[in-house]
Amino acid sequence: DRRSGRTPTSRTGPEGAHSGDWYYYTETSSRPSGQLYDLVYTCPHGSNAEISWWYHMHGSSIGTLRLKDGVDAVVWSKSGAQGESWQNASAIVSTRSFTFQAERGGSYRGDIAIDDIREVLRSIDWTESKAYRQKLTTPSEDSELTPGTRREYTT
Questions:
Q1: Is 9 exposed, middle or buried, given 0-12, 13-18 or 19+ CB atoms closer than 10 A?
Q2: pLDDT (tens digit, 9 = 90+) per residue, 123-141?
Q3: Can you give the pTM of this predicted structure?
């Protein structure tokens, strides 16, 4: 769900967005254990992108947050409570599309939130061997992403 302000359940979820007014989160009240929530994105600048985001995993029954590439390979994962503040993470995604997948823990105190999902733009330096390496450019050149598809389902 897209949300502004704190999540409805006490002692879980953030007090508000990491920045701005809105963030995405999993509402785990009245849902079965193991329920999955997907947010699907597409990188506007192609594959092999570095994705940067902020996540919030506070509560007594936090499940798992995963970043999966377009062929469902997990490229990043965190499980369990990660404290009361927003945490920053990044990973390289080899495909153009990717999915954030949150898995519900054992009870309603397991809201997981994400915010400020960005594609870190890179420049390419050619070496004499004509192989290339990618180098980060300034953060002001990052591209903020919005989800294309939201899914909620039980396995």
A1: middle
A2: 444 333 333 333 322 233 4
A3: 0.79
